[in-house]
Amino acid sequence: MAHDWQFDVPTAGSKRLPPDARYMEALSSQGYSFEVAIADLVDNSIDAGAKDVVVHFLRDGDQLVSLLVVDDGKGMDEKALDVAMTVGGRRDYAAGALGMFGTGLKAASLSHASAVTVVTTTKRTRAVGRRWLMARAVSGFQCDIVAPDYAQSLIDRYDNKRPIEWQGTVVRWDGVKGFPKHGGGGQTDRYLHRTINKLGLHLGLHLHRFLARDDFNITIAVEDVRTGTVYMNFGVEPLDPFGYPVTGHPDYPRSFTAALPSVGGVTLEAHIWTPKSNLDEYRAVGSVMDRQGFYFYRHDRLVQAGGWNNFRQPEQHLSLARVAVDLPDDPGDAFRLTVKKSGVEATPEFSAALEKADASGRTFLDYLVAAESVYRDARKRSGTTRKPVLPPGKGLDPVVRETIEDELPIIPSEEPISLRWQKLDNELFFAVDREDRTIVLNQHYRAAILGGRRGGLNDAPLIKSLMYMLLHQVFEKEYSGSREKDNLQLWQSILISAARAELDRVADDD
């Protein structure tokens, strides 16, 4: 029997259902990367009016013990600190604030640490502190009150040197999950070098507009807590994704206006990069496919670096196209910022407006054609036309993948070729898995090839790069002919001989 559809769901009252304490576990499992988590803390420092921010790694000999983010912002009194440490705590954000949801400090911190302590002071109030210990948080939202003497001593540690002078905040992470568990053998130094370099690039990119100002600085430092020795201390440099010395096309940059009915006109600043650039401002953003597209800013903070937001698919010929978009203060339903502030979701309304976007008689589609032409002309001038290849995937170092994607046209919308180590018959150096589109390398020879170095997902970049170059065509054909099969057998024999020679050398060294 048919019933009339009810457009509104009828209710019979309401019931209060507070979150379970395990909500803290869910909050800490939102997939914050280390760099994004630190950037979220620096956002809070900027909102507090900080001029100097220090990201401080503390070590005890070979062991990393804590990480702190210290600023000279206006600080908080006890009431404001309680709000800041409350999950989803309500507070009034200033018009240009980078904070939004009231979860960033807690979610970012507990994604990477088992405890987060915040100690703060203002010009008129004493130092106060609170600590979320994950083990206590999940058992009942129990937030610890930091002993007043320790709160003051932590402030004093950064007082009268840098950055705190009269006021400021210290965020301390303990039990950081990514720190090496055993720091000997240079592990800690390698971790710091790799992590700090990546962090500096991320902060330099996403906060480049702030760092370009004369009155704002971010410093990354490493100190030994026992000896006071400072191992590193350097300022983060701005990394402007539009900082090319010469434009790739004389008609650009050019400002387009996309008219969205829900928010009005949105300005699109369309740029075309110089071809074959080696500048960090161009290459550090990501792969060829990642770095093209829209660069969304919210209150001068870069919240998305590249991507076409369902307007079109990325392709190599558009690798020089970058478009700066400052989100309106009230984005309505047209744009939605992710909680981690690391991406923007745009509705179909935005894509429709791009189709009609105009700048002095030129359309946004004309801009894309121009960007593609600059790329193609640069390829023609090099005198070579290279055949498109399947993209490289997991198992190959990101730097190598990026170079391949820069140098070779990539077949669009295809699954990449992965590389992995696996047990094989010792008469084989490699195997080709067409179904999974994977090059399998023999685990038996891994240690000899690595020369005693520790293995990982992207290890042995030289041998893996050569294997990709040898074998990518195998995956691009439906089947292997007799000549190709003979080549595979030839490569197999030579590589097995070379791998066994490596094993013999290792044995002789032992």
Describe the strand arrangement of the main beta sheet, using strand numbers: 5-4-3-6-2-1-7-8
- What is the alpha-carbon Rg in Å? 27 Å
Biggest pleated-sheet summary:
8 strands, mixed
- The overall average pLDDT, rounded, is 88
Shape: globular
**What low-confidence regions span 5 or more consecutive residues with pLDDT below 50?**
none
Strand content: 15-25%
> Which class of secondary structure composition applies to the elements?
alpha+beta
Q: How helix-rich are the residues, as a percent range?
A: 25-40%
Amino- and carboxy-terminal Cα gap: 84 Å
Number of helices: 16
- Number of β-strand runs: 20
Could you explain how this protein is built, in words?
The protein is of the alpha+beta class and 510 residues long. It has 16 helices and 20 strands. It has helices at 23-27, 34-47, 78-85, 104-110, 134-137, 148-157, 187-206, 208-211, 280-283, 288-291, 348-356, 364-381, 398-407, 446-450, 461-476, 482-509; strands at 52-60, 63-71, 113-121, 128-133, 144-145, 168-176, 217-224, 230-235, 254-260, 264-272, 293-298, 301-305, 321-326, 335-337, 344-346, 358-359, 362-363, 418-422, 430-433, 438-442. The strands form 5 sheets. It has an 8-stranded mixed β-sheet, with helices on both faces. It has a 5-stranded mixed β-sheet with strand order 9-10-13-11-12. Strands 18-20-19 form a 3-stranded mixed β-sheet, covered by helices on one side. The chain starts with 22 loop residues before the first helix and ends with a helix. Helix 2 runs antiparallel to helix 4 (104-110) and helix 2 crosses helix 7 (187-206). The protein is globular. Strand 16 and strand 17 form a beta hairpin.
